[in-house]
C-alpha cells in the first residue's frame, strides 16, 4: 500500500470515541459491545468491547481524520480480539457471530485502505483478518443455508478479503512469509462450485487458519 500522501491513523481504540457516543445515542450498539452489567433502556458502550462498524463511503463525504482511523497496530489488536473473544462466544449463534465479525473486519480493511501503511504491516493485518473471517464462515456449516446468516454477503466479504490481500502482495517488492499459504487458500476456496462455507471449511484445515498469531 502506498505510504505517501495518505496519513497514518491515530485512534488508540477499537472504536473511536465519537462513534461509540453516536451509536449509544442512536441505540445501535450490538450486544457484544455493551458494558457488562449495563441495564435499562439505554445500554452503554464498553470501550474495551466496542468495535468500529463498517460505514459505506458516501459521494462527496470528506476523508475521515486520522483521529478516526486506527493505525495498523490497533487494527491487528482488533482482529485478534474478534478472533479470540467474539468468534469464540458460547452464548451467541454462529450466524450472529459471523455477521458481526464480517462487518467489523470489513471496517478494518477500510481503515487500512485509507492510510499510508507499509506493505509488510498491512499484509499482517489483512492475513489475520482473512484467517478470522474464514474461520467463522467455516463454522457455519451446510445448515447455514437455511438459517439467518446472509451467506451471499459473507462469501462476498471473503472474496474482498482475498482481493485486498492479493493486491497488497502485488505491491510488495518481495514475497511475504505467508504469501504462498494464502495464495494456495485462495485457489482452494475458489475450487469448483463450493458454497460460501465449502471453500472456507477446506481452508480451515490449514494450521494458519486456526489461530491468528
From TrEMBL:
Pfam families in the record: SAC3_GANP (PF03399)
InterPro entries in UniProt: SAC3/GANP/THP3, SAC3/GANP/THP3_conserved
Domain SAC3/GANP/THP3 conserved: 14-193
Transmembrane regions: none
Protein name: SAC3 domain-containing protein 1 isoform b
Species: Daubentonia madagascariensis (Aye-aye)
